[in-house]
Structures are given as structure tokens and as C-alpha cells.
Amino acid sequence: MDLKWIEDFLSLSQYGSFAKAAKARNITQPAFGRRIKLLEEWVGIDLVNRNTYPATFTKAGFRFLKHANDLKQQIDYARLETVKQFNNNETKITFHTQHSLSEYVVNKMINQNKNAFETAMVYVSPSNLHDSVQAFLDNRSDFLIGLSFKGSRLYVPNPEVESVTIGHECLIPVVGTKEDGSVLYRDKSNKIVPLLSYPSNTFFAQVLEKHGSISQSECRFNIVYENAVTH
Predict the structure, then answer these.
(1) Can you tell me the distance from the alpha carbon of 208 to that of 215, in angstroms, rounded to the nearest whole number?
(2) How far is the C-alpha of 80 from the C-alpha of 171, rounded, in Å?
(3) What per-residue confidence (pLDDT) applies to 230?
(4) How far, CA to CA in Å, does 201 sit from each of 21, 58, 130, 171, 205?
(5) Low-confidence ranges of the chain (pLDDT < 50)
(6) What is the pTM of this model?
(7) Which of 128, 159, 163, 197 sits most deeply, having the most CB atoms within 10 A of its CB?
(8) 3-state secondary structure of 143
(9) Are 129 and 146 in contact (CB under 8 A)?
(10) Beta strands in 175-226 (DSSP E)
């Protein structure tokens, strides 16, 4: 059983619809529905009546709701109580961020604000964008650092969250060169060029797709390597 399933179920009880709850959880509605189904399979009985619109809880669903609330509270208490016992004399600052930002951006912030971090233990948790946002919303971090692009804005479904821009980056295409400095490959029609790429579900892959950078090229790309933090 995944704690996220419990949190999804509680979100569904709060918002009353799959669409609103999925948006609040910052995931797609189909993915949200699959996680609710996995929870039902784990419990062993239908918790949601899908024959009504919007969907409502079954009798078993309403009964499980109380247990879900109690379970979430117990887990949150266990985490906070454990941390408190071992961090009484320590200031801990937690960052949740994407892998590509976890090193140089956080280090830059620390170096530029040495007095603020001098007596603190800094914990950096790199993950994908969705999990970073969710961890931040679940109060498991002090700061969330994320990338934002024209068509891929960083969305945090909480109006009380304050955001600031801490820098700007440029995504620049590069190509390998020969010993004399000339380029190995050129963007020409019918030319096949090896490409170091990003997995389709990553932020940078979505940016490139929305920007149309790849599709605008005349050459044909052959993906030879994929990495979420390819530079």
C-alpha cells in the first residue's frame, strides 16, 4: 500500500470529484483514477460508486474514510515526532527540486547566503517535478525549486504559496566538433544526426516538444542516448 493512495482518497473526499481532486494532487485524472483503483484493490472492496456523477463513496468508502484520516494523522505524527527527537538542537532546511537543479542552484544559494545557512543542516531531495511539488505541498520541505517555461509553467496548487524568480537559464543546442573546430554534423535535409536526448516524460523533453525545436530541423535525428539530466 502506498501512502499516496490514502492522500488521493482524502483529496477525493475533500473535492468531491476526480477532476478537481486530480488537479489538487497535481496529476492527470487518468493517473489519479488508477491510484484510487489500486487502493480499492488493496482494501479488497469498492470504495467509490462510479455509477453516479459526480462519483460518490460507497458505504465501505465512507467507513474507510475515517480510517484513512486516522492513518494519515498517525503517520504524520510519527514522522514529526521522530524528527523532533533527533533534531532538537539542529536547524534543518530542506529543498525539494528537480535533478537538474539539485546541485548548482542549491549550492549557489548557499554560497550567496552563507550567514543564513551557517548553523543549519541542509537536506536536498532531488526528484521529478511532480514528486517534488507533492512533497512540498505535504509540508515535507521548506523550499521548492523548479523550472518554468513559456508553455510549461511551474504550477503549485496552493494560493498561499509565495514564489520568486531566482534566475534565468538558456537552453542552447550544441554539436560535437572535429579536431580543427569544424562541426561534425549539419542540419541538412536527409542528413541523419545522432541525438543526446531527454526521456519523453521529463521537463526538458516537454519544453522541446512545445517549442518545436526538434520538428523544425531539416535533418533526421537518431536518438542514441537518453538521460533526464543530459547537458
Answers:
(1) 9
(2) 40
(3) 58
(4) 22, 35, 11, 18, 7
(5) none
(6) 0.50
(7) 197
(8) strand
(9) yes
(10) 192-197, 220-226
